[in-house]
Amino acid sequence: MFSFVVDIERSSMKLNAAVNIFSCLVMLVSLTAGKHEHEEQPFVGEQMAEELSSLKPEEIKAKLAILIRVIDVNEDGFTDASELQAHIKRMQKRYIDNDINNSWNNFDKSMTDDGKLSFKDYTESLYGQPSSQDELSDEYKELLERDKHRWNKADIDEDGKLSKEEYGCFLHPESCPMMADVIVEETMKDIDKNGDGFVDLDEYITDMYRAEDYPEQKEEPEWVKSERQMFRDHRDKDKDGKMDREELKEWLMPTNFDHAEAESRHLIHIADDDNDGKLSVEEILYHYETFVGSQVTDYGEQLQKHDPAEL
């Protein structure tokens, strides 16, 4: 039988990447309300964590100090919120641009020689080609349908193919406003386990925390309790006990909310020990683990470069 196990896992990661990014960033809003016990824990992938573990703290700090000089645009010896925000935006754009370029260049050149990629070439390149429709699992069919729906939304000129720019919206819908509805639809399908077209409190919490995964914990962590209250007070705007599509959209893509600004405020909130509203080099280096786990260093990626100042 034709196996799609590995490719399905790859596709699942890709399809959920945008949603996970939004979920992680949106949670920064609640974190700025007060310091929680887990705030200092860096968010670094396992591979990156392993690579960074080979460096001594002094080496990490030395690389971070080089990067700080780049962020400090006005060269006053401090890093303020606007400088952090601008740098985070550069990191966000660089990550997306690099990911799009790498993904596009991975396709056989014959597939994109006219500057466009067909859905057939995309699926065969990613999943392989089954010998018959009978060998397609239900999970694969669902992923294929989901891919196709997102593909059609990104296909601005409706020619059935995607240019590199359109493919960028397909791969990273969070970077394209026209893809907002797709993000809402995919998130609703992922979280709405009972299929009623809404996200209730239990579904909302289960998406980020399941008690059975932490049998050693006798009660919910404080941040989970905070999220329950956040759902009641802010997510469920009409107080009917659930989120509809519009409420879900406001959670994922808050009106007049800037993720880079939120993270810059969050980092200053953590590291501004003298409460002067800006960060000294010493404060950043003292809290270096937090910055290694932030978008400021691209979750540590920037510190792996020979020259961390190279953007």
Automatic annotation (TrEMBL):
Ranges where the EF-hand domain occurs: 59-94, 142-177, 179-214, 236-258, 259-294
Molecular functions per Gene Ontology: calcium ion binding
Function statement: Probable molecular chaperone assisting protein biosynthesis and transport in the endoplasmic reticulum. Required for the proper biosynthesis and transport of pulmonary surfactant-associated protein A/SP-A, pulmonary surfactant-associated protein D/SP-D and the lipid transporter ABCA3. By regulating both the proper expression and the degradation through the endoplasmic reticulum-associated protein degradation pathway of these proteins plays a crucial role in pulmonary surfactant homeostasis. Has an anti-fibrotic activity by negatively regulating the secretion of type I and type III collagens.
UniProt lineage: Eukaryota, Metazoa, Ecdysozoa, Nematoda, Enoplea
InterPro entries: EF-hand-dom_pair, EF_Hand_1_Ca_BS, EF_hand_dom
Coiled coil: none
Gene responsible for this protein: calua
Keywords: Calcium, Chaperone, Endoplasmic reticulum, Glycoprotein, Metal-binding, Repeat, Signal
Biological process annotations from GO: protein transport
Localization terms from the record: Endoplasmic reticulum lumen
Designated name of the protein: Reticulocalbin-3
Pfam families recorded: EF-hand_5 (PF13202), EF-hand_7 (PF13499)
